[in-house]
């Protein structure tokens, strides 16, 4: 639908954005900002960031942004935009329907002129689903492809890096398999020195430790540089649900529970 509705915009932005491959402001290290909103994206460019990764919902590790957000950002930013392709929170093992949704979103990004895709797929044992990930890489081409922080769950990272390089992944976003990139610095240095794929540290990077990654030869870093802004007083009823923040569980509408509610309303027992 989107491909048919906006063909001229798609072609113009795609050609225009892919020419923007580098910013000269930081010769030794790129700054990629994880932008969770339109305002975050605008702030990133105003502050001099080299690139953004656009997503939504940082609290759950990020999911794919809406079409409206993506289109507005692409129309207004001049720095390269990479987009997170993740259809839901939780694990990184996706159903066939979810995988089809991911592919449709990649095609939409390509048409809007996005410079890169951030995605990846795991098996339930946290090994990389190479076949599905390779399909995403091929579909995304000629856009850049970053394997996201699902990498921090894999059991044999050195082997995984080689496999990802072999299927055309350009970079890996990782905290070094620790809760923060500073804690994982030894792993990050080891992988960066031993591989021909870009290792991009991300997770807990801020003004107090960013120099550490430059000093250790990393070409790019990923951070949100977020500030929490109080917008309203604490509401009487919270709209957040803590049970949905468990990465080991997936919330779905239950067929039987729906039927039971319909049956009660229909006086059927």
CATH superfamily: Copper homeostasis (CutC) domain
Share of β-strand residues: 5-15%
Number of individual domains: 1
Query: How would you write the strand order of the largest sheet?
Result: 7-6-5-4-3-2-1-8
Count every beta strand, where a strand is a DSSP E run of 2 or more residues. Answer: 8
Q: Largest sheet at a glance?
A: 8 strands, parallel
Which structural category fits the helices and strands? alpha/beta
Overall radius of gyration: 20 Å
Topology (elements, then pairings):
Elements: H1 2-5, H2 7-18, E1 30-35, H3 38-47, E2 51-54, H4 67-76, E3 81-84, H5 96-112, E4 116-119, H6 130-140, E5 144-147, H7 157-166, E6 171-174, H8 185-194, E7 198-201, H9 210-215, E8 220-223, H10 255-265
General description of the model:
With 269 residues, this protein is of the alpha/beta class. It has a single domain (2-228, 239-265), classed as Copper homeostasis (CutC) domain (TIM Barrel), CATH 3.20.20.380. 38% of the residues lie in helices and 13% in strands. Strand 6, helix 8 (185-194) and strand 7 (198-201) form a beta-alpha-beta unit. The chain is globular. The termini are far apart.
Quick structural overview:
This protein has 269 residues and is α/β, with parallel strands linked by helices. Helices cover 38% and strands 13% of the residues.
Essential attributes:
single chain; about 270 residues; alpha/beta; eight-stranded parallel β-sheet; about 40% helix; about 15% strand; disordered N terminus
